[in-house]
Structure formats: structure tokens, C-alpha cells
Amino acid sequence: MQPKARIYADPSSDLDHFDLLPDSIVLLIFNKLADVRSLGRCSAVSKRFNSLVFTVHDVYIKIDRVVTVDGDSDDPLSSSSPRQRPLFANLIKLMLSSLLKPFLNLRSIKGSNKPVFPQLSHHSPAQVLKDFTHVHNLRIELPSGDVGTEEGVVLKWRAEFGSTLQKCVILGGTRVDQKPVSSELEASVEDNGSIPESFYTNGGLKLRVVWTISSLIAASTRHYLLRPIIRNHPTLKSLVLTDTDGQGTLCMGEEQLKEFREKPLAPLGSSNRTQVPASNMKLKYAPILELPGGMALQGATLVCIKPSSDGGSAANTRTETDAFISGAFDGPFKTAVKTLMKRRTYLLEMNGF
């Protein structure tokens, strides 16, 4: 019979090799982690982690579920407008539940029983971030898009804001189908780019106007809700607010954030959103637009929006706008935008609202 092997404790196992890493490396790891829930768990590991977590530069907040609760009417995340509540319920009250579970039972590393984030389950993203003092890049993801559409409709938008809207691009289509094989349908893709008469008579133009107005309202509402975050985090250099559906994205770079702080604009009455300025719009349309993978987008529409009062060099402005439009979406939608940009342009004007 073979003797049983004995296992002895390794004295060196008591050494935590992670403690040998300098703070700069640990911070690099935390910045790669980014997710606020994971950072919350890390803050409860040790005093060292607790002191480092809140100095990260990159933070990502994913809102999994929205819980509507009664709050202070002065809270910028609350709504006094019943008209806005049905459409933007997931924006007006960003009261988090599942996002904040990791924080609920966290206690201060410093020895008290005080939670790391007291009553965090009833706090907005602005309050979740209040202890993060060095945030440079922030990304927030909402649980769904804001604009309700009929089944099968494709609607995507991307907007840049400073104090107010700077530019916006909207891509829409009535549905995505298999690529048509009929020579007659294929020929419609190769036409001269003109909008058919039926577009004006069968409600096609009206539908695009609804898409445009709804997307702009969604974007301006998101912009309004970001005010406390921008105000309380002067270190911010990049801010992106998107949604899980990939419907809409609001982005603000360093220059836009600086403009927002230096020239803050009052919200639009009691609507809890930023006013959309009078704008010029360029509309491009294709009855059928071929997409990669043997698919086709029916009623493909591209709307590019810029404020009428936008200044600067015309050449530079056009170059920047074209770059913004071409890089607004990924995958097959990027191809769709590139193709639509070659179509005939129809100019429209829109009053501020």
C-alpha cells in the first residue's frame, strides 16, 4: 500500500501578490473594468481598492430596469409634465434597481456600518457618480430606445450636443427584407435618386416627419437629463448616452462639454428637455436599398439636421458634418448611409420647438 501524500501549507501563500502592484497598474485594471457594478464590488474588497475605485477615468453605467417612484419636483430627473411621461418614462425617472444591487449591502471599509452609497437604490445616475471624482469618459446605457415604432420598422439616430443641438443624423426604413430578385424592383434601386410621387400621397413624408420630430425630442430629453452629471463632473471629456436597442445615441466631446458649462441654456418650459433650435434638414430617400448579406431596406431614409444659425467655415463645417454622418452607425447601417449619401438631396427647414 502506498503511503498517503501529505499536504503542507505554503508559508508564501499568505503573500498577496496583487498588493505588490503599484496603484497606477491597479487603476489601469479598474479603468478597463469600467462597469460601475463591478467597481462597486471592488470597492468593498479592501481599503486600498476603496480609495482607488473612485478615482477611475472610465465609467460605464448600464441601466437594466427602470423603477418609477415619487420624488422631489425639483429633481431634474423627475417630470411634472404628464404629456411626456408615457413616451419617455424610462428617461424621466431613472430610478435604478438591478443596476444598484451590488452596492446595497456594501459597508464602509473604514470600520463604520455606514453604506458606501447610502440609499443608492433610489438614486439617479448623477447620484451614483457623485463619489467618482476623476471621471474622463462616461458611457450610460438605457434599457430601451425612446421612440416607439411599428413592428419591423428600422429607426436609428445619433446626435451631438453642446449647449444645444449641433448636429443629428437619422436613418430609417419601413422594414428589412430579403434582397428582391425581381428585375423591376432592382431597377428602382438604380433610379436617378428622385422621390416618387407616391411618397407624398401615401403618408411616406408624414411618417418621416414623425420619425424626425420624435428622435429630436428623445435626444433633447436625454440632453436635459445629463445636466447634473456634467455640472458635477468638471473632469469629463467624453459623454455618451445610448440604449440597449441601439436606437439612439447622444454624444458630447470635450469641446461640447466646455460649451455646455460656459453657455448653459434654460430648459424648454416644463417639458424637461432642451429646446431644439430652428434647423436645416437634408433628406435622402431610396425605395429599396440593398444591404450586405443579401438583405434590403425598404423605404430607406436619411435625414441630416444642423441648426440654421450654425457658423464657422462652410468648407470645414461640411467636412466635419460628412465625417459625423458617415461614422454615425456601424455594420450594414454604415453601408446604407454611404449609399444614401449619393442620392439626390431634398432641403427642408424646421422651426425651433
Q: Which descriptors apply to this entry?
A:
353 residues; alpha/beta; 31% helix
Polypeptide structure, described:
With 353 residues, the protein is α/β, with parallel strands linked by helices. 31% of the residues lie in helices and 21% in strands. The chain is built from 13 helices and ten strands. Strands 1, 2, 3, 4, 5, 6, 7, 8, 9 and 10 form a ten-stranded mixed beta sheet that branches. Helix 2 (36-43) packs antiparallel against helix 3 (47-53). The model is unreliable at 67-122 and 183-190 (pLDDT under 50).
Question: Nutshell version of this structure?
Answer:
The chain has 353 residues and is of the alpha/beta class.
Question: Topology of this protein?
Answer:
Layout: H1 23-33, H2 36-43, H3 47-53, E1 58-62, H4 89-92, H5 101-104, H6 125-128, E2 137-142, E3 154-161, E4 165-173, E5 175-178, H7 183-189, H8 198-201, H9 204-225, H10 227-232, E6 238-243, E7 248-252, H11 254-262, E8 279-291, E9 295-307, H12 314-326, H13 332-340, E10 346-350
Parallel strand pairs: 1-2, 2-6, 3-7
Antiparallel strand pairs: 3-4, 4-9, 5-9, 6-7, 8-9, 8-10
Spatial separation of the terminal alpha carbons: 89 Å
Structural class category: alpha/beta
Low-confidence stretches: 67-122, 183-190
The DSSP helix count reads 13
- Average of the residue pLDDT scores: 80
The helix-strand sequence is: HHHEHHHEEEEHHHHEEHEEHHE
Query: Care to count the β-strands?
Result: 10
- Please outline the major beta sheet: 10 strands, mixed
* Relative strand content: 15-25%
Query: What is the radius of gyration computed over CA atoms, rounded to a whole number of angstroms?
Result: 25 Å
- Could you estimate the helical fraction of the residues in percent? 25-40%
Shape: globular
